[in-house]
């Protein structure tokens, strides 16, 4: 039996934000995650927009946490060295009913306290975004909208939390949560381990309602709503400098076209309710809907430069709002579930709020000293020529380019593996360094990344996985295979 004061279930953007905030208090804190890494759920597959807060209904938790989260995002990302850009957004309308919807959104935003919202007319639109469909007749201008790298923020918050004492354990799937009969709190069973904790915090994304219903008398229903995307290759100039939304509907914020912080163009998502919360497939129907709809924003859109497709799954609660706080009817049990959009935007505020609540209920004292998180060095591909020379002189591994598409060096890959909560898989390296994120999608660099992982983790190359579990990328060595075939002379 493993004992801890606070057990957080789920290491997405919500769990890592809560863990980082709680790491400032004197307590033993553990995070368990069913996947092989941080950000294995919705946090790795979303639009990456820090919404300004105009869309959520006033008075809801979504509105409260979104507006507070958006306000602190810039400083948080700057302090953690996470890519973030306040590029602004337009929500585009094509007819009079869209205009009325945009007016309602503007009013809603004002009520939520979002500054700078205004309706722009057709003439202003083509000057701001020349690639926009000339049939667009008006738009809500949202100067406070921003873009961020969602998983890089989760990695940085996890590293910061780990530096300050939080323990992360992967491949731990919470299968049951039950009151500890001795009255000491909760017992969480993962099949391989049992955890006894004074307080439990459910940040389990798509499985949040399942865990909630194990302990609370007030049951929740969760719908899993998948969204599919195209990701276009990086380009010197992108057709849009802002995120371009169409009018939202009952299923979400609709299909967007947006630059990413790394200079790609993201197109999507659709919204389809699915049975299996782990089914992140993409489908011809889903993608063709995304393409058709996005062409209304950008008539010249072609997916010739598409480098990958992916999908993420929204965790939608029947209450149509986030559930954040104490679990109804349970002592020392807390949750942040139903965290669909704008959950990425809200995470810093949810972390702050939930940590303060748990600390107060448990009577935790703040630590006298916090270990300062120092962001890693500038990525090699962003360095000037002089900076590159200096980097190679200080560490020759900077001179070995492993990923040619994204210009990622051996030094950066080794650093990513050695971080406090370092990469353990090919995908972990990819999301931390961008090795494998480019046009060839790892075709060239994957074997070299696998070699470096096996050296750093001191494990055989055959046990390196793409993303944990059974996702091994090599089945055997040629030498072994020849031996088995009796052809090794
Ligand atoms: C298509 C799409 C687009 C979106 N776009 C945006 C956007 O632009 N802006 C925005 O603000 N929000 C957006 N969102 C919402 C945002 O992605 C989510 O709100 C956010 O990522 C939720 O984070 P989370 O940590 O709560 O959940 P997750 O990221 O899903 O993390 C939950 C973690 O818990 C783990 N877990 C689950 N069950 C267990 C268990 N039993 N035991 C142990 N671990 C467990 C999972 O493996 C996972 O790692 C979007 C979502 C989707 C799907």
Under CATH, the homologous superfamily of the largest domain reads FAD/NAD(P)-binding domain
Which ligands, by name, code or SMILES, are bound? flavin-adenine dinucleotide
CATH class of the largest domain: Alpha Beta
The helix-and-strand class reads: alpha+beta
Based on the coordinates given, report the CATH architecture of the largest domain.
Answer: 3-Layer(bba) Sandwich
How many helices? The count is 13
Mean pLDDT: 96
Number of domains: 3
The CATH topology annotation of the largest domain reads as: FAD/NAD(P)-binding domain
Q: What brief labels describe this structure?
A:
single chain, 489 residues, FAD/NAD(P)-binding domain, D-Amino Acid Oxidase, Chain A, domain 2, eight-stranded mixed beta sheet, five-stranded antiparallel beta sheet, 13 helices, 22 strands, binds flavin-adenine dinucleotide
In short:
The chain has 489 residues and is α+β, with helices and mostly antiparallel strands.
Detail the topology: elements first, then pairings.
Blueprint: E1 2-9, H1 13-22, E2 29-33, E3 49-50, H2 61-80, E4 84-85, E5 89-93, H3 96-112, E6 118-121, H4 122-128, E7 138-142, E8 146-148, H5 150-163, E9 167-170, E10 176-179, E11 186-189, E12 194-202, H6 208-215, E13 222-232, E14 243-246, E15 256-259, E16 265-268, E17 272-274, H7 284-297, E18 306-317, E19 323-326, E20 333-337, H8 343-362, H9 385-394, E21 401-403, E22 408-409, H10 410-418, H11 426-433, H12 446-456, H13 478-484
Parallel strand pairs: 1-2, 1-12, 2-9, 5-14, 12-20
Antiparallel strand pairs: 3-8, 4-8, 5-7, 6-7, 10-11, 11-12, 13-16, 13-17, 13-18, 15-16, 19-20, 21-22
Helix pairs in contact: 1-5, 1-8, 2-8, 10-11, 10-12
């Amino acid at each position: 039996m493993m004992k801890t004061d606070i057990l957080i279930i789920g290491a997405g953007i919500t769990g890592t934000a809560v863990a980082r905030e709680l790491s400032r208090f004197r307590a033993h804190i553990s995070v368990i995650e069913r996947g092989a890494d941080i950000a294995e759920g919705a946090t790795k597959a979303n639009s990456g927009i820090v919404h300004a807060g105009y869309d959520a209904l006033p008075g809801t938790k979504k509105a409260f946490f979104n507006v507070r989260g958006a306000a602190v995002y810039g400083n948080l990302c700057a302090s953690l060295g996470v890519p973030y850009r306040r590029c602004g957004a337009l929500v585009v309308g094509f007819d009079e009913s869209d205009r009325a919807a945009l007016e309602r959104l503007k009013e809603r935003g004002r009520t939520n306290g979002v500054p700078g919202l205004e309706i722009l007319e057709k003439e202003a639109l083509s000057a701001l975004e020349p690639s926009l469909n000339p049939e667009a007749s008006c738009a809500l201008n949202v100067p406070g909208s921003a873009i961020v790298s969602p998983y890089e923020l989760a990695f940085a918050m996890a590293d910061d939390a780990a530096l300050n004492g939080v323990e992360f354990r992967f491949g731990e799937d919470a299968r049951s949560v039950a009151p500890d009969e001795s009255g000491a709190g909760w017992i969480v069973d993962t099949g391989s381990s049992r955890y006894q904790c004074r307080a439990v915090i459910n940040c389990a994304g798509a499985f949040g309602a399942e865990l909630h219903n194990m302990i609370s008398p007030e049951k929740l229903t969760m719908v899993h709503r998948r969204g599919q995307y195209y990701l276009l290759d990086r380009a010197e100039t992108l057709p849009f400098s802002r995120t371009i939304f169409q009018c939202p509907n009952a299923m979400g914020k609709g299909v967007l076209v947006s630059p990413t912080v790394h200079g790609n163009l993201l197109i999507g998502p659709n919204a389809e309710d699915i049975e299996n919360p782990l089914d992140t497939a993409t489908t011809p129907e889903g993608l063709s809907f995304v393409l058709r709809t996005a062409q209304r924003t950008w008539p010249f859109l072609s997916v010739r430069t598409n480098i990958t497709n992916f999908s993420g799954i929204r965790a939608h609660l029947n209450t149509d709002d986030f559930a954040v706080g104490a679990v109804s009817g349970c002592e020392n049990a807390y949750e942040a579930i139903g965290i669909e959009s704008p959950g990425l935007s809200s995470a810093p505020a949810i972390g702050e709020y939930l940590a303060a609540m748990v600390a107060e209920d448990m009577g935790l004292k703040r630590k006298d000293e916090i270990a300062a998180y120092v962001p890693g060095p500038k990525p090699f591909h962003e360095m000037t020529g002089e900076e590159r020379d200096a980097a190679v002189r200080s560490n020759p591994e900077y001179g070995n380019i492993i990923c040619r598409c994204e210009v990622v060096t051996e030094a950066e890959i080794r650093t990513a593996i050695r971080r406090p909560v370092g990469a353990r898989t090919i995908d972990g390296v990819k999301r931390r360094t961008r090795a494998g994120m480019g046009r060839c999608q790892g075709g060239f660099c994957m074997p070299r990344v696998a070699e470096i992982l096996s050296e750093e983790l001191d494990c055989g190359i055959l046990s390196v996985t793409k993303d944990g579990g059974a996702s091994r990328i090599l089945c055997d060595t040629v030498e072994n295979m020849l031996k088995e075939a009796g052809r090794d002379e």
